[in-house]
Amino acid sequence: MEDADSDFGSLIRHIQESRGIDFRGYKRTSLERRIRRRMEEVGCDSFAAYHAFLEAHPQEFVDLLNTVLINVTSFFRDSDAWDVLRRDVVPRILERKGSNGPIRIWSVGCASGEEPYSLAMLFAEVLGTTDFCRRVKIYATDLDDAALNTARHATYASREVESVPQPLLERYFERTNNHYVFQRELRKCVIFGRHNVVSDAPISRIDLLVCRNLLIYLEADTQGIVLPRLHYALVNDGFLFLGKAETQLARSRMFEPVDLKSRIFSKVPQEWRRTAGGSLALANDAAGTRANQQARLLESIVDSSSTGYLAVNAEGVLVFANVHARRLFDIEETDIGRPFHDLTISYRPTELRSRIEEVRNSGRMVRIEHQTFTRAGSEPVRLTIEVAPLYSRDGKAFATLLSFFDTSRIFLLQQEIEAAQESLETTIEELQSSNEELETTNEELQSSNEELETTNEELQSTNEELETMNEELRSTNEELEVANEEMRRQSEEAGEYRRYSESILRSIDVGIIVLDENLTVQSWNRWSENIWGLRNEEVTGEPFLDLDIGLPVPRLRRPLQDILKTQAPVDPVEMEAMDRRGRRITCRIRMSPLLYDNRLDRGAVLIIEDVTERARSDAFANYLGRIVGQSLNEVYFLDPITFTFHLVNKGAEEKLGYSLDILRQIPLHDMMPSIDAIAFDRLVAPLLSGEKAEIVFETTIERSDQSVRPVEICMQYFAEEQPPILVALAHEVTERQRIGSDGDKVEAMPG
Does the global pTM surpass 0.90? Predict the structure, then answer.
């Protein structure tokens, strides 16, 4: 785990050094989750591996920053809040600025520019284009350079301007091809720049500051840094516009709500002032006079004192803290003017609220000895606290002074004295035993007190964790909105893919029927509609085996059940059927299981082909083959290279006297005594080269019984067949018959 933390810290430092972006103030859980998302997409299983991937692929920084910085924005996002801004805030700004005063607006985390351009349209609608360009400056800042570059171009797709009201779209955008470009004159008044609101100096004298859904991604300590910066940036009575998921200002005294539901706040001017020595006190009212020299001298003395002083007025508000007290208890400028009971010092190192009340009631000082106080990163110290009333010249108490003395050394000396005393009294066993019992009782009381303080701290920690979880849920809601947009896009793609698939099914010139596991029709393409006369909507959801069509579907029950059981295709079947016009057709049906990625059976697919003409052709070919095979004429199918027999008909086997197995081993020219292999090659060469379509020659063939008979051979070469084949037709010429010229005399001719 320590290695993972170290690798994560090293990765964050590398991002800062390479791109100048400091993520150290971001919430660790959100930041780590978004970086892991990019790691999964690029196939990295550890932070160290992703660190190496970034060094090898610098272009990955663009995708990483888009994922981490969450550039999710839109024009007039949360339109109800923008309506409140237009109705209640803009008129107040214009009223305060008068007719000529400049107006300065700052959009923090502007992403791709939709937010600052929405602000420009909002003010241009009220001021008009001319006065807007003369008076308004909009500063738009972000950490993502790629997003800022997109914002400067101000070019948006049709989907990105859907939230812009139609009148504003026509008035402030120019249509170019399939994109919309924001008006050039208004665009000149929007200044884009890279800025880190956590570490960079804030822009000052701002009338309206828009920082929406940024603070929710920052740690609580970082929010404590950013909020004073936003407060400083605004002019007195300036306005702050936050996102709907942000509630941090509900606990801040620096801002007050204008419309809490819309997250619109106004700046509260601070009423504290800093003395010359650095102490903080409430500022004089308008009628106050300049402090005289004696007052300045007293302030300097108090500020240079090594004793910490706090003053609480009669209303219980902290009104003064000198330099030593501020450093000792981490009191900020914003703490002056807050109720004392809201501050940590009111109960740590000890509970002081009841002591202040006691002093007010009794009018006497209360001293609290040697309280343990621990600051982070330093050794514990012992503080002695004096709580005393302060009286005005008329003798009335008007405030309570709390003095904090560091008595650590005195406490140590006291401990040493007590140890020496105890060592001297070790001989008195009874007194020592009594003393130990008293100390034990004291320790138990201290332990009980510490347990109560620990319980209080645990409750506070639990409250902080709940607030963190609430902020995380808001961040998750933002991510869900992004996921929803992605699902909408995927839904559109799925719809397009479905239409594409349906068009393919309609275009295929065979019947395709898809059945589910219950043999119910799920899909029925156009070929099936044309052949069987039933539309897709008529059969979808109907049991296939109950359909009344020209195909005898009950005969398919058994093979379909076998498919669902074995999840394997079955042999094709051919069936006689009748189409919707009454024409008899022959159908060849192929059946396969419908399998998904997980290989689970989801039904069956039937592919039906009309093979009527093919069946007729096959029947004729079979018929022709039978005639040729039974013919007494000799038919030889020869290899065109070796001239051995591939196949012969029945007449050839009988007249040659050999079986087909023997003939397959004999070249044709070996059975011709009158010709050798070379002469036969020359004879057949014109046929094989394509010079002649056929050759006819007479020769003698030797039978298996060594007898010789004269024959006439007609040879043809079919080069286009696969494989090419040489066909020879042979018949004996021993006895030829010739019909006389008068048609009534037939005589035998010698061979």
Answer: no
